[in-house]
Amino acid sequence: MHMSDLSPASASSSQRSLIARLEIDLRLLGMIGAFALVCLTFWIVTDGRFLSARNIFNLTIQTVSVAIMATGMVFVIVCRHIDLSVGAILALASAVMGMMQARWLPTTFGLGLGHPLIAPLTMLSGLAVGTAIGALNGWLVGYQRIPAFIVTLGGLLIWRYVGWYLTAGQTIAPLDQTFLMFGGAEGTLGVALSWIIGAVASAAAIWVQYSARHRRRQHGFPTRPVWAEGVVMLLTSGAILGFIAILNSYQVPQAKLRRIFEARGEVMPEGYMQGYGLPISVLILIFVAIVMAVIASRTRLGRYIFATGGNPDAAELSGINTRLLTVKVFALMGFLCGLSAIIAQARLQAHPNDIGTLDELRVIAAAVIGGTALSGGIGTIHGAILGALIMQSLQSGMAMVGADAPLQNIVVGVVLVLAVWIDIQYRKRLGMR
Amino acid sequence: MTPLVEMRDMSVSFGGIKAVDHVSVDLYPGEVVGLLGHNGAGKSTLIKCLSGACRPETGEIRIDGQQVEIRNPRDARAYNIETIYQTLALADNLDAASNLFLGRELVNPSGLLDDARMEAETRKIMARLNPNFRKFAEPVSALSGGQRQSVAIARAVYFNARILIMDEPTAALGPHETQMVAELIEELKRQGLGIFLIEHDIHAVMALCDRAVVMKNGKRVGTVRVDEVTDDDILGMIIMGKVPPGAT
């Protein structure tokens, strides 16, 4: 990170490249470049439709479910494990939540449809189911020493079909109105609140960067030049506010607005417009990303996850309880599956039995495209989210230009292998493992 | 004087093979005791009972004369026993500070890792142990063998180890780095630590140790003071199991 620690040859500032002086992670830059390339290509091919506010909005809400699980998968893979059961856990959590809000709570417990407690109780049940199954996976892997591949391959077959029996194989709908707000377009924060959140987020990002620099200076460590800090700050807040601006510029369709006014018994004023703004589901993803990134880099749990992935023996000898750690990592993965189930189900506005099918592969692919090494010890949260975004962009872009589903799968498969190959070449060149 | 460590009548077997067969050794403060023997002689297994990586079937361990139970590496740490392994010690993907504090991280009042303070402490101790050390921000996989070893030793020193176990600490090192580790061992001795040194290299044992324990086929051949015997005496113990006069 700190180029001044390196050999004298690279210490003279005139020889250092712009990127080195900004101290931006090169791999992150590569991924952003790849993402930009994908966007640009589809932008040209679709005559600009791909980067319309509407498509960016849709792309974001389609990515959320997989991206949330991908952040958990980073920890699982960093620990040298794998979780093939995430799609199945999502399906079971979704089945339980479908039954909760459509049958059990309104009828069995007699709350009646539309009761305000239905949405929170339903969500709690989904999160609890996901966490419990994840913890069970972790116990089987950590304490019973069954390879994670086998435990979760079994889970892939088991949990979805437990859900199937629960719902008697039926699709469950309609869902609770409050619950639907977590799906994306049905629950957005509106223009004003989105701007406020964007401003707060920019300020927070700048503060975090400033305080990190301040701490390093207090200890007398080398810091990057002030102008470089400024450039990074500008880029970060520019990206945040730009993203908000795009989501705000996507207008709620007139017909939908008119229905909302009619439902309130009012008449919509002529020429009334309203932007969607930030969807709640995306806000949840951002929150998850921040929490997971803090866990990864600033907590003992995260440090132990990476240490265990880097050298399990060293971790054990350092007094880390690696078995309990395995349970925690899988339980966290399960919790995130439950959270994704809320968002996926609310977006589909139903619980279909095939919800989350093949999500395990999308989630693993997102983590791996995002630079998580299957050999363990290496991976980042932001990388996994970017990986999920790249995959979703490819799929949605191809759908937009009319490529059929088989071709979409072929391309995503090729990109997965290509991304890992490039990463291996990159590490080789840097002399990394 | 009470020994710092006494291991009495220790036995460990793996699937019917006696890896360690009723062995007793002791260690005094400010002393370096070498453990020698062929591969498979049982020296590593014996010492793993002390570091908590292996549970003995028979025998007892006393620290400062008190009988103790060491069930895992955490227990060992609680008795200020630190182990420097030849290969196993470090998480390659983490930097020096993360490795030094692994399992005992410094946190700020809100419970988050205080990386800046850990790096500052690491810089302080490395300035003492290995002033040429510069690579604080890189993962330790980018370090040389000697630099990695100095991180491992820094870990033991930082946490006030009283009993240090070193498993071939110089095996992967060049001559200059070996010299550095030798000086470090002398310094730790002066500070009153007791050190068990597992070694293949007889010259290293003669140079660094006060006493040497030779093992063969899981049994203790004998214990000698290195200034009372020759290289050949020790070789004879390792190869033939021949006990020189004066050995105990």
Q: What are its keywords?
A:
heterodimer; A: 433 residues; mainly alpha; 2 domains; 71% helix; B: 248 residues; Rossmann fold; 4-stranded antiparallel sheet
Plain-language structure description:
The complex is a heterodimer of chains A (433) and B (248). By secondary structure, chain A is an all-alpha fold. Chain A has helices at 8-11, 18-22, 26-45, 53-78, 86-108, 118-142, 148-166, 177-180, 190-218, 226-249, 254-263, 280-298, 300-310, 312-317, 322-348, 359-369, 381-400, 405-429. Chain A folds into two domains: 24-187 and 279-429, ABC transporter involved in vitamin B12 uptake, BtuC, CATH 1.10.3470; 189-278, no CATH class. The longest helix of chain A is centred in the middle third of the chain and has 29 residues, at 190-218. Chain B is α/β, with parallel strands linked by helices and 248 residues long. Chain B has a domain at 5-91 and 160-240: Rossmann fold. Chain B has a six-stranded mixed beta sheet, sandwiched between helices. A four-stranded antiparallel beta sheet of chain B has the order 2-1-4-5, covered by helices on one side. The longest helix of chain B has 16 residues, at 175-190. The chains are: A mainly alpha (433), B alpha/beta (248). At the A-B interface, helix 9, helix 12, helix 13 and helix 14 of A face helix 2 and helix 4 of B.
